[in-house]
Structures are given as C-alpha cells and as structure tokens.
Amino acid sequence: MHAPALFNAFVRLRWLEAVRSEVILHWKFNRYDIAATFIPGLLFVLAAWHANQPDWSALPSRLFWGSLYFWLYCSVFCISNQLAGEHEDRLNKPDRPLPAGLVTRHGAWGRWLIVMGLFTLAGWRLGVLEWALLWQAVLVLHNQGGASRHYATKNLVMVFGAVAQLAAAWQMVRPLTPTAWDWILVLALPLLTHVSLQDLRDVAGDRAVGRRTLPIVFGEWPSRLLLAGAFALLPVATHFVLLAPLGPRPDVVTLDVLLAGFCLVIAGRILWLRYPAADHRTYMLYNYWYCFTLAAAIVVL
Q: Model confidence over 144-183: pLDDT tens digits?
C-alpha cells in the first residue's frame, strides 16, 4: 500500500474512533434519563402517527426524526444537569462522565452548547420550535437557575418540561387536538405532586446540600401518605379524562385496569417499602407507568 493510501486509511480510522468515543460519551451522559425523556417522547410520536389512519410509508421518517429530536432533548438536559451537579455526582454517581474524568468541564460546556444549537435547529426543522425553546428555558431554570433546590419550583418546571416533551412529539406529526391536550395534561399536571416520589430515596443527601424537597419540608411519613393518596387517585383521571370517552371497548377496559393496577402498586410500595433502594425502584415504576400510558395511547387513539 502506498504512503498516501496508508495515510488516508489512518485518518479514516482516527475519525471512526473519534465518532465511536463521542457516541459512548453521550450514552454515558444520557443513560440514567432515557426512560423519562427519549422513550416517552418517541412513544407519543407513534401515538400521533397511529391516530386517524396511520400512513405506513411515513413511519420510518417519523421514527428517525423523533429519535433524533428526543435524543437531543435528553442530551441538552443531562449535560446541563451534570454540569450543575458534578459535586453530588462525585459522591452518588461517580461513573458519570465528569466525575469519572471522561470529559473536562470545558469539554462538557462545549458539547452542551453544540447540542443546544442542534436541538434548536431540529425543533425548527420539525415545526416544534416553540416547544424546543420552552424545554431549553425549563432546563436552564432547573439546573443553572436553582429551581431544583425547592420542591415547588422543581415540580413546576417538570410540568412545563413534560408539556414541552409531549406537545412537540404530537405536533411534529400532526396538529395538536383537544384529545392530544387531554393526554398531555393528564400526564403533565400530576408531576406537581407525584414527581416528589424521586426525593424519598435521597433525603439525607438532599438535606446535606440544602435542598428543600417535599419529605424534608413536611417530613417523610406525611409525604409518603400524600404521595400514596395521589397515586391512588391518579387512575380516576386516566379513566374519566382519557379512557372512558372512548367507550367500553375490550382494549380500553383492559388498559384502564392495568393502569389502575400500576398506580395502586406504586401507592402500596410508597407506604410499605420505605428504604432508599426500594424507593428508587418505586420511582422507576412511575417512569414505567408514564411510558405505559403513552404506549396505551398508540393502541386506543
């Protein structure tokens, strides 16, 4: 092989290795939050596509653009969040890129600015720029603006984040409808209370860094009673707002029962399994309920 050919092969290998390393780095930034960001967004894209006679020829394009948009949606949040919480991650999640030394703060800031720009462009390309800008404002308030330090502001920005997520997912496929807004709001508004479930697992750590989470402000047992009651009532909203208007179809009734059972299991775990590892698994069940509800929308809409 001649010298120019060897040089070109070497450059290609270095380029491929750089791409591979970047993909692995972004995976490590995002992996803890995929179930709450990427997957729900893509599921609601599929729900919007499936509603009103789905166009099968358009499905590959919907999946490609939805995957790109919600990977960027996840990335802009996770990098920002980990830049703001590097000190805590050194104690609680040392395998994340910053505490593990896989990237410098300068490098993380540079990557965040790039993905913020790409996310804005993707929102413009898909006709959901307003929701992309809302999500960017929300994550800056949450991470760099200190909203995450008090349960009231933290939960409120999470509501707006969920609206930005789900409205974008639907609107990139078809115009938002009253039915779509019913699904968006029934999933987003309960975050005002229900998302405090995540704070039960790290009361000691949050108290050490001065956070004012629900269990710290009101006490652990009152918070557990409040959250258990909130989850026990959540099936009322999903039944009367989302599923009952569709009629007593077998698929609707089955999903109604399953969603209610999911919530009652979560409520029971909140009251009877009261230690950090169990609280983490209970919070993950809430993430799974969120995704399962969006998957139900694919079936029934």
A: 888 888 889 999 999 999 999 999 999 999 999 999 999 9
| Nearest partner of 195 among 175, 211, 173, 214, judged by Cα | 214
Q: Are residues 259 and 288 in contact, defined by beta-carbon separation less than 8 angstroms?
A: no
Q: What is the pLDDT of residue 87?
A: 79
Query: H-type helices in the chain, by residue range?
Result: 3-30, 38-50, 59-84, 86-92, 105-125, 129-139, 151-171, 178-188, 191-194, 203-208, 214-218, 220-237, 250-272, 276-300
Taking the C-alpha atoms of residue 281 and residue 159, their distance in angstroms, rounded to an integer, is 22
Structure tokens at 174: 């078809």
Low-confidence stretches of the chain (pLDDT beneath 50): 1, 7, 10
Q: What is the pLDDT of residue 7?
A: 47
- Cβ–Cβ < 8 Å for 51, 301: yes
* Bridge partners (DSSP) listed for residue 150: 212
The 10 Å CB-count burial string (b at 16+, else e) for 107-139 is: ebeebbeebbebbbebbeebebeebbebbbebb
Name the phi and psi angles at 240, rounded to 5: -75, -30
- At residue 96, φ and ψ (nearest 5 deg) are -70, 160
The closest of 219, 203, 201, 209 to 279, measured between CA atoms, is: 201
Q: Would you state the pLDDT for residue 26? A: 86
Measured distance CA(262)–CA(145) in Å, rounded: 34
